């Protein structure tokens, strides 16, 4: 059952909502921005079980070198495509969406981004984590005038809109937890990061 009514529309307009409620003070205060997002996600997801989402060591990329944010998105999308999780159209779609609805977020430990796109570009639900050797700039979610230096992204490939909302809600728990985010950003192995994030994302919020 789709817990969001017209699920696809709600799932992929959740970030643009910030254009109506945010200003520079939200862009500069990452905790406030994340808190508002978490409340919105709780209001729309209404709990529910997360569908099986692939996150393997092969989907954790460390020391990635990227020319800019779009190069980074294409590298992560390529890995998802190589593993069969997304369609040929996914990379172009996720880049196009980032240009319109940016996903950069200030957090308790620097910037992150959570790029994603419409469900029709996905074969099998998966998450790809890419940690950069040197940060690249992303436009801040909800504020086209601000950028944030990003050194880690969580690229989402989901098949069902309500599942993406629940996944995003649990991802907010990592992004608001300094210790959790530190492990992702400094963990020495893909296996350790994969195991930790998979456990955190599998939790069901009521």
UniProtKB/TrEMBL annotation:
Pfam families: PTS_EIIA_2 (PF00359)
InterPro entries for this protein: PTrfase/Anion_transptr, PTS_EIIA_type-2_dom, PTS_SugarTrans_NitroReg
GO molecular-function terms, A-Z: transferase activity
PTS EIIA type-2 domain: residues covered: 53-200
EC number, as in UniProt: 2.7.1.69
Enzyme class: transferase
Protein name, entry field: PTS family galactitol porter, IIA component
Organism ancestry: Bacteria, Bacillati, Bacillota, Negativicutes, Selenomonadales
Originating gene: gatA
């Amino acid at each position: 059952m789709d817990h969001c009514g017209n699920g696809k529309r709600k799932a992929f307009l959740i970030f643009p909502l910030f254009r109506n409620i945010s200003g520079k003070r939200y862009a500069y205060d990452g905790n406030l921005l994340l808190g508002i997002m978490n409340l919105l996600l709780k209001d729309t997801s209404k709990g529910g079980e997360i569908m099986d989402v692939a996150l393997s060591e092969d989907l954790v990329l460390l020391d990635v070198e990227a020319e800019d944010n779009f190069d980074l998105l294409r590298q992560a999308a390529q890995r998802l495509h190589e593993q069969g999780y997304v369609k040929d159209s996914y990379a172009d779609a996720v880049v196009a969406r980032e240009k319109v609805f940016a996903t950069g977020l200030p957090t308790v430990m620097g910037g992150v981004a959570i790029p994603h796109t419409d469900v029709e570009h996905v074969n099998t639900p998966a998450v790809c984590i890419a940690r950069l050797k040197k940060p690249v700039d992303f436009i801040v979610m909800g504020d086209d005038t601000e950028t944030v230096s990003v050194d880690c992204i969580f690229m989402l490939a989901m098949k069902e809109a309500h599942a993406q909302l629940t996944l995003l809600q649990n991802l907010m728990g990592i992004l608001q937890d300094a210790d959790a985010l530190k492990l992702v950003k400094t963990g020495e192995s893909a296996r350790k990061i994969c195991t930790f994030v998979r456990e955190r994302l599998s939790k069901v919020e009521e």
